[in-house]
Amino acid sequence: MSTEQNTNVLDPKMDKERRNWLIATSVMGGVGGTALVLPLVNTFAPSERAKAAGAPVEMDITGMQPGELRTIEWRGKPVWIVRRTPEQVSDLAKNDGNLADPKSQRTPDALTPEYARNEYRSIKPEYLVAVGICSHLGCSPSAKFQPGAQPSLPEDWQGGFLCPCHGSTFDLAGRVFKNKPAPDNLEVPPHMYLSDTKILIGEDKKA
Asked: Which of 49, 54, 128, 174 has a Cα at 20 to 30 A from 160?
């Protein structure tokens, strides 16, 4: 091999160019690797489709006041959380004689989990958790918590819900009154308390 050839191999300028080329290709490889990783990471996040299919959702009830209602969406349906006042809880028993299913005995497996088959239809008497959809034709009832006579409500009304579509009424445990179009009580979804201030809607493994 000639001296000239050896000089070319060891040429500092050529060595610098080769080093720059290696750095550039390494950077491009790193960018490509990152681009591949990001879609994979995103696949682990719950999708909107998964949520709609019934993935559990958390509801924070921090600071809820007695008589307050909050709503969260689960499976595309509104779920109500109502913090009942002590008076509202004690008044529930007064409705029993006027209710179509006061003990939640109709289709209990579909509408009322075992831990909610009581007078309060709840785990804790203070809180009602119910799907806000009328069992007649799927309208969403309106909250009518104020007791006493009102339009479309009886004079001895103790507070509850009125369906604006066909006049079905439900008490503050979501139980339907007699002689109304709605055949069943409001659904109580699977749920459990993660803490005193958080409810998990859609799962009840610890209940």
From this structure: 54
